[in-house]
Amino acid sequence: MPTLITNIKELLQIRDGSLSRVSGTEMKTLPTLKNAFLLIDDGLIKDFGKMEDLYEIQVNEVINAQGKMVLPTWCDSHTHIVYAGNREGEFVDRINGLTYEEIAAKGGGILNSAKKLQQTSEDDLYKQSAKRLDEVIKLGTGAVEIKSGYGLTTEAELKILRVIKKLADNYPITIKATFLGAHAFPSEFNNNKEDYVDLIINTMLPKIAAENLAEFIDVFCEKGYFSVAETEKIIVAAKTYGLIPKIHVNQFNSIGGIQLGVKYNALSVDHLEVMTTEDIETLKNSTTMPVALPSCSYFLGIPYAPARAIIDSGLPLAIATDYNPGSTPSGNMNFVISTACIKMKMTPEEAINAATINAAYAMNISDTHGSITKGKKANLMITKEIPSYGFLPYAFGSNLIDTVFIDGKQI
Ligand SMILES: N=CN[C@@H](CCC(=O)O)C(=O)O
Ligand SMILES: [Zn+2]
């Protein structure tokens, strides 16, 4: 039986089904309908319109959204939420003056998380990760991409990907899995890095493909991590198994990761804190979505991705949390949106577009998620009473999300 939401102060992000992403000046527009209704049936958005055009209909439930906004749930296209424990100690080390790179160089960082994860059972890892997922769903996230990458052995990488699969089976939200075995070189491969790349290609990838555990391939393409040549080798091998590239590039240095991503039709290139004009030029006329991770810049105190230069050059932009224990121990998309506005000078319209329709594109789900469109999933949220949608990024730190619907069901 259908559910009807009535008296919606403003229904945000109404789009035609054919739209998959918005770029450049298009990002400044957020199509809305004031004083609206929305009808949910069979888990999908069945209809919406002005209250004055509401017709007689038999429904199961009527929700009065007087004074409240309704919008599609956030799509978080870049997370690492399947991890063990935390890295609170390194947080304090950084407060005391060490840099992220210095901590990694002395065996902390990703290797620290990998050690913890290797010692954690699959059940415990599931429990820890499910808790994080529960939290972000309540904050309005209705689809999430999750990467492996804190295992760094065949067994531990498979453990993470199986946990992701179990989360996808047990939770109603859409979950996409990414294989990120190339997140860091385990220390035992320090003197023979090619052997680790070979392990990824010859052992991990075939097993992951055989169990159908990932849709995307990711590599941390960065100085001190994986070179452009190593990244290319891994992407080429992964593509033979049908995995689509979504890669970590330009976090600390611009070394050619964007050019590589575009060459191999990456679905997205993520981080982008350090961008050259050539990097921006390369992204033009490509199908690759640039993805910025504002909370990572906030937490590490590193530059923010130059959103203005990216959008003003006509490109699209998506934003995501990067939820992980080292650089972003937060999965709050509302904070990401506020930070994008406050620190990256994105307008509320641009930030909401970046976290919905463009973020859905960066996860390959824009045909079902990311906008209020008839026939798309009824993954929606109702805000608390707010004066306007600009209040969402403005009142940073307040939880303004009242109710979340996934597949038309209230969470
Ligand atoms: N930069 C690479 N990977 C993660 C952080 C890894 C970590 O510090 O644990 C990121 O996207 O920020
Ligand atoms: Zn990341």
Automatic annotation (TrEMBL):
Pathway: Amino-acid degradation; L-histidine degradation into L-glutamate; N-formimidoyl-L-glutamate from L-histidine: step 3/3
Main subcellular location: cytoplasm
Family, similarity comment: Belongs to the metallo-dependent hydrolases superfamily. HutI family.
HAMAP family: HutI (MF_00372)
GO molecular function, one term: zinc ion binding
UniProt entry tagged with the keyword DNA-binding: no
Xref: SUPFAM superfamilies: Composite domain of metallo-dependent hydrolases, Metallo-dependent hydrolases
Positions of Fe(3+) binding: H78, H80, H248, D322
Catalytic reaction annotation: 4-imidazolone-5-propanoate + H2O = N-formimidoyl-L-glutamate
Location within or outside the cell: Cytoplasm
Gene (UniProt): hutI
InterPro entries (UniProt xref): Amidohydro-rel, HutI, Metal-dep_hydrolase_composite, Metal_Hydrolase
Domain Amidohydrolase-related: 69-410
Cofactor (UniProt): Zn(2+); Fe(3+)
Keyword entries, A-Z: Cytoplasm, Histidine metabolism, Hydrolase, Iron, Metal-binding, Zinc
Binding site for N-formimidoyl-L-glutamate: Y150, N324, G326
Name of a matching Pfam family: Amidohydro_1
Manner of cofactor binding, per the entry note: Binds 1 zinc or iron ion per subunit.
E.C. no: 3.5.2.7
UniProt-recorded name of the protein: Imidazolonepropionase
Binding site for Zn(2+): H78, H80, H248, D322
